[in-house]
């Protein structure tokens, strides 16, 4: 009986996500279960480009980037669930971001732990419950809806 590795290092993450510095926001996958959930981390360092302007006197990770990190984590779960690696023509788009609440700031030295759970998949639309926390304290919680498209079909409405 073989046990499949349920973690991903940065090299494997880069094989599944097209994002690169400064927008690759997942450093490691701690665990995942196809069709169910994933847990990943983002190590937040003072060297992040966004801290130069947000804010120089009190560095805070922008909320939209925390949501983006959760979306990248969700994309990894979707690709692993489908058992496919995206090609250069695959794109993942937001379809919706709902019920988002920011609970605490995230700054240099924090480790953002991202937990994403698939709620449903219907007509090519994936819906997830996503939470990011630092030291057990929720930083952001949200519901995300995304779709995976071929770049050539990207201008068509979602669900077609």
TrEMBL record:
GO terms for biological process: fatty acid biosynthetic process; lipid A biosynthetic process. The active site is at 54. Its EC number is 4.2.1.59. One of its GO terms (cellular component) is cytoplasm. The keyword rRNA processing does not apply. The keyword Cytoplasm applies. InterPro entries: FabA_FabZ, FabZ, HotDog_dom_sf. It is an enzyme of class 4 (lyase). One of its GO terms (molecular function) is (3R)-hydroxyacyl-[acyl-carrier-protein] dehydratase activity. Keywords: Cytoplasm, Lipid A biosynthesis, Lipid biosynthesis, Lipid metabolism, Lyase. It catalyses: a (3R)-hydroxyacyl-[ACP] = a (2E)-enoyl-[ACP] + H2O. Pfam families: FabA. PANTHER family: 3-HYDROXYACYL-[ACYL-CARRIER-PROTEIN] DEHYDRATASE. Involved in unsaturated fatty acids biosynthesis. Catalyzes the dehydration of short chain beta-hydroxyacyl-ACPs and long chain saturated and unsaturated beta-hydroxyacyl-ACPs. HAMAP family: FabZ. Belongs to the thioester dehydratase family. FabZ subfamily. This is 3-hydroxyacyl-[acyl-carrier-protein] dehydratase FabZ. It comes from Pseudoduganella ginsengisoli. The lineage of its organism: Bacteria, Pseudomonadati, Pseudomonadota, Betaproteobacteria, Burkholderiales.
